[in-house]
């Protein structure tokens, strides 16, 4: 097996790439809000999920499915490279077997993610970010919510009045940041490899949790309208055969 040396800041490069793709998707969506009748191109959506797991699902407005595929594949890919790196250093067979297992798991999740995006695209023909949930004007600013959670994790959720969820995200991000910081302190004082690995692991988890916090705040701003914008209208109906009432729900 060839020796593979991983860049020290590879994980931050992956996270920055994910942020860039999310920003590009947001800008791409803004230009297509006007046409809510046209369904997404299934081939383009499938290609997006092939390039980045979860991207196609997010494009279909399936945010939680996208998050599961993205972070699931990211977890296995990271573990695969982690064990390959240690196998190259020490040639321990356990690292080689762990590398193969995690790589196979990552490829499996990646493939299921592509098939899932293709299946929904061809069967249901969703309008995605062009229509449906994200085509309506929300009562809370999605970008404002995302920016708040980007500055202070959980603030965007509080802004959309999801207080318990905001507290959960804030405590999770704070805990992961503390663990990464503590591992960094231990590594600098002892230079033990286990602390360096622990620092890398919790840094990955922190980056993933942070992105999920921001994405959830953005989506929560749209979902907030369902609590406030649904109106029940009762209209009297006069008919020669009966007199009654007609109830109409408006979104």
TrEMBL record:
The identity of this protein, by name, is DUF5683 domain-containing protein
Q: Mind listing the UniProt keywords for this protein, alphabetically?
A: Membrane, Signal, Transmembrane, Transmembrane helix
Residue intervals passing through the bilayer: 67-85, 204-224
> Signal peptide position in this chain?
1-29
Specify the superkingdom: Bacteria
């Amino acid at each position: 097996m060839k020796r593979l040396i991983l860049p020290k800041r590879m994980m931050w490069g992956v996270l920055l790439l994910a942020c860039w793709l999310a920003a590009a998707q947001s800008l791409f969506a803004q230009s297509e809000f006007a046409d809510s009748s046209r369904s997404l191109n299934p081939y383009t959506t499938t290609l997006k999920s092939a390039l980045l797991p979860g991207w196609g699902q997010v494009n279909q407005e399936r945010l939680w499915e996208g998050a599961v595929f993205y972070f699931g594949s990211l977890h296995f890919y990271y573990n695969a490279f982690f064990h390959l790196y240690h196998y190259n250093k020490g040639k321990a067979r356990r690292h080689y077997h762990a590398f193969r297992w995690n790589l196979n798991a990552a490829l499996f999740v990646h493939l299921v993610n592509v098939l899932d995006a293709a299946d929904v695209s061809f069967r249901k023909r969703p309008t995605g970010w062009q229509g449906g949930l994200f085509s309506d004007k929300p009562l809370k600013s999605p970008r404002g919510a995302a920016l708040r959670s980007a500055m202070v994790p959980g603030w965007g959720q509080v802004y959309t009045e999801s207080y318990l969820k905001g507290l959960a995200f804030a405590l999770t991000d704070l805990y992961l940041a503390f663990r990464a910081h503590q591992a960094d302190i231990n590594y600098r004082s002892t230079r033990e490899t286990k602390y360096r690995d622990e620092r890398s692991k919790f840094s990955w988890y922190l980056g993933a949790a942070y992105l999920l916090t921001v994405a959830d705040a953005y989506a929560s701003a749209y979902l907030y309208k369902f609590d406030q914008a649904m109106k029940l209208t009762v209209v009297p109906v006069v008919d020669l055969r009966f007199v009654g009432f007609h109830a109409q729900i408006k979104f």
